Amino acid sequence: MTERYGEPSVGDVADWWRTSVTRIAPGVVEHRGVPVQDLIGHTDLVSAAWLLVRGDRPTPGQARLLEAALVGSMDHGPQAPSIAVARMAATCGIGINNAMASAVNTLGDSHGGAGEQCVELLAEVVAAGGAPAAREVVAAWRERSPYLPGFGHRFHPRDPRRDPLLALVARACDAGDVAGEHLAAALAVEDALAEGRPRPVPMNIDGATAVIYAELGFPPPLARGFFVLSRSIGILAHAWEESGSGRRNKGPMPPSILPSYGDRP
């Protein structure tokens, strides 16, 4: 190995995990160059998360927007697969960290990925010329898939989280904290989807938070990352509640209900 790579030095080893996120030394913990003791008691968790991920500080208005997105996505009850998995796992004799990990691992493209995909959609609309290009972009997306991420909801005719989140974005636009391009793009997509329909197809929580993440300049993968961070709070709450139920090996259905047997239609 040394013939191929040369003799490793202490510097080679130290540079192996080189990072600008956190510096650790005896008696020292710094996040992005800021001593942790200067953050504790002076910086809220959302602003600290922004600092750690982005390396700079949000304005108060930007921090409020990010916090609102995280609050809006925390939980949607046991009908959400991630929450159901957390509760089932908690009855299987594993630790709460294992229950949370089991639940987080269900947050994929279909359950948990719509926010990331919607940021990509909105970015495409903005890149194509903004709101006037929405119909064209929607048509192109529909050629690839009948599903448009971030719009419509299987339970809510109008997602109760849409209006307050978008109102906060509009307020942030007026204050100059965000530009508003992605908000305009999302509203234009809503209008395009409503054409020819007896009922509109409003944004859901994934669409509304995608507007926020896009307006704040987060790349699409970070929209999913922040959704996972937010939903982990609900996962924790449900796993903890279920762990106190006294039930063991709780399955997806009550024992009195058996799954149908036979070929799937």
TrEMBL record:
Residues 244-265 are annotated as: Disordered. It holds the Pfam family Citrate_synt. One of its GO terms (biological process) is tricarboxylic acid cycle. The keyword Plastid does not apply. Its EC number is 2.3.3.16. Pathway: Carbohydrate metabolism; tricarboxylic acid cycle. One of its GO terms (molecular function) is lyase activity. Keywords: Lyase, Transferase. GO terms for cellular component: cytosol. Belongs to the citrate synthase family. PANTHER family: CITRATE SYNTHASE, CITRATE SYNTHASE, PEROXISOMAL. NCBIfam families: PRK06224.1-1. This is citrate synthase (unknown stereospecificity). It comes from Nocardioides mangrovicus.
